[in-house]
Specification:
mainly alpha, 5 helices
Length: about 130
């Protein structure tokens, strides 16, 4: 059962609203994630190991502030190692300024859903 004209217009309006109001979400969901950089992961691990050493030194010399600094260093190392990095692409406006920049070039999201729905219905009828 295909969507009526009113339902199609409503879905297209919802899609435009999503692109307009949630540009950050659209940009983050449409950009592929990059593999973590080996050097960034190694740097994070080294910072974490240094944090453990500082924490242990704080325990040995019985100075809580040194232990807290060691914990902070460990936490920073983990953040450096696991935070995803994104390469800036020159010549493109940021997603917040240009929400349509990351839209698929081959057709709108709703058009793709509609095409898939029609194909499924066609396959079921055969």
């Amino acid at each position: 059962m295909p969507l009526s004209e009113q339902e199609q217009r409503l879905l297209e309006e919802m899609e435009r609203s999503l692109y307009h109001n949630d540009a950050d979400f659209v940009a983050s969901s449409s950009e592929p994630r990059q593999k973590p950089s080996y050097s960034v992961v190694v740097t994070g691990i080294l910072i974490g190991i240094a944090g453990v050493a500082i924490l242990l030194a704080g325990v040995i010399i019985r100075q809580p502030i040194v232990g807290v600094l060691g914990f902070i260093a460990m936490f920073a190392g983990v953040l450096v190692a696991v935070t995803p990095r994104r390469n800036g692409r020159p010549g493109r406006a940021p997603a917040a300024e240009n929400p349509q920049a990351d839209a698929p070039k081959h057709g709108s999201f709703m058009q793709n859903l509609n095409d898939r729905w029609e194909k499924r219905q066609h396959d079921r009828d055969d």
